[in-house]
Amino acid sequence: MRREGKRDPAITIVAAALLVACAALLVEEAYGEEELVTELANGFTATHSADAPGRFEPFLYAPNGVFALGFLRVGTSSLDLAVVHLPSSFPLWRSTPARLADWSSPATLSFDGRLVLATGPVEGNLLWSTLNVIGDTVALLNSSELVIRHYDLRSPSWRSFDNPSDTLVLDQNFTMSTPPLISQNGRFALRLGKTYMALHMEFYGGLTRPMYWQHTAMMAQPENATEPPVYGRLDGQGFYGLYLQGSNGDDTVDKLAFDTFVQNLTGAFRRMTLEDDGNLRAYYWTDASKAWTSDYQAISGQCQLPTSCGAYGLCVPGEAAPRCQCLVNDTTGGTTTPPCAAVETTDLCGAGQLFDVVRRSRVSLAYKERVPFETYRTAAECEASCAANCTCWGAVYNGASGYCYLIGFPVETVVYEADDQKVGYFKIRKAQPHRSAARPRAMSPGVTAATVILSLVLAVAGAYVGYWLWDRRRRRLAGGVGMEQELTSRPYRDLKSMDSSNNSFKA
Ligand SMILES: *[C@@H]1O[C@H](CO)[C@@H](O)[C@H](O)[C@H]1NC(C)=O
Ligand SMILES: *[C@@H]1O[C@H](CO)[C@@H](O)[C@H](O)[C@H]1NC(C)=O
Ligand SMILES: *[C@@H]1O[C@H](CO)[C@@H](O)[C@H](O)[C@H]1NC(C)=O
Ligand SMILES: *[C@@H]1O[C@H](CO)[C@@H](O)[C@H](O)[C@H]1NC(C)=O
Ligand SMILES: *[C@@H]1O[C@H](CO)[C@@H](O)[C@H](O)[C@H]1NC(C)=O
Ligand SMILES: *[C@@H]1O[C@H](CO)[C@@H](O)[C@H](O)[C@H]1NC(C)=O
What we know:
Number of domains: 3
Bound molecules: 2-acetamido-2-deoxy-beta-D-glucopyranose
Number of strands: 34
CATH superfamily of the largest domain: Bulb-type lectin domain
Distance between the termini: 72 Å
Number of helices: 5
Largest sheet: 5 strands, antiparallel
CATH topology of the largest domain: Agglutinin, subunit A
């Protein structure tokens, strides 16, 4: 017999479950009807919420649903505006303001004819904006390009492809007038010359920029002043093409072929990124692989990278793996490991600039062909020519050839070579007690490790929440797009890049 008023708990549970299911269906319905925003009109404003769960808060999507524009958290707490490849959460373009805002600040992105990123009222709080541009709409294209368009004009009045950060994507033209590609840590740049592309280190805020890698277009004629300059473009067939400006694109003057060039890989999305270790690498992404696979790097061999062991580092090539040591006098016993010294931000000119000297044999520069040299009979003459010049930080002498390579920029990593005739002379700024007290150096290893672990945990947690949100959204979209992709380990890379002064092989 059933007693009134006391229901079976099973029925209650089933009823509750049904209620939840109905609610879920209603939510699903609401989501299903939600259209992706693919265009912003004049007057648009987005405010970022500091307690958003993910690293990325999108508000504008490409029609193919693969790319989005939004607020991006960089490192642990900085805020930037970025175009992100959603399946990998890799930022393909960033506004990179000179002054980064804190993620917890109430920043807004508004469009009033130009795009403006500011923390509060624009006066005095402007972080970044598109200059000298007036447009009616903002859109993100299927190519990942962000454009500002004018109703009356056919071509966009502003395009992110003309303002790259550290990455070039498929079909993006890179010309002599395009601003350089700058690595996230700001220490390296890719520039195009009239007949070549080249990588540079950036010192003293970009005033001194020694070249450490160069690729000259094979068929270009540098002597021919009337020949137009070359421009570059990443091609879907797996190469970086250099073309003559003004040509229709068939006029390839050089092809930098990637590993996948012979494979006829179709449908892959490609990017080329100037990374924080100073290398230029190409990657491709396919829906099947769900990961960025590298098929090109400009520099192979860790010791060939310009700052692989940091400032005053010595890279020792090895069969298994290269090792990092510090540049110390030959007479100093034992070896020390990086970090060896902080990167110098000013030269040794001016009153009271004192320096000590380090002499080391069996050293060379990975990029010595790009460094100016003089010829001397002795190492002492080579040294003297550098010692007397306050913009010279060191000299590497080859006793066999007499070549004296002069380092006109702060000393970075040099390479070990088992040749007693190759000797180096390096200036090292004398520690000034009050200065080093005012500028505390690196954190203690314990604190650093704890910070890294904590950041890693937070980044992974954030990434997963972000992925979960994105994945839910994707399932809404999946019908048309059919992607089944996941997050890569980008947050880890960000952590590494935060620690840019310490580019040893520990990571
Ligand atoms: C962008 O991609 C979407 C989905 O793949 C497609 O429907 C649309 O036609 C594409 N737009 C252009 C301009 O190619
Ligand atoms: C790149 O340049 C070529 C040749 O000038 C042009 O046809 C093409 O449309 C450009 N691509 C983009 C994305 O602007
Ligand atoms: C220089 O370049 C122009 C345009 O490409 C070409 O017509 C001319 O023949 C070249 N001259 C020489 C000397 O190579
Ligand atoms: C590459 O792909 C294209 C189009 O799919 C095809 O026509 C061509 O034969 C392929 N080439 C090779 C070498 O497989
Ligand atoms: C290295 O040796 C030179 C003498 O060759 C000496 O003057 C200099 O102080 C030494 N440098 C250091 C950092 O000990
Ligand atoms: C000093 O060194 C710089 C760079 O190493 C060089 O450009 C300059 O000509 C040198 N000055 C003198 C007077 O030798």
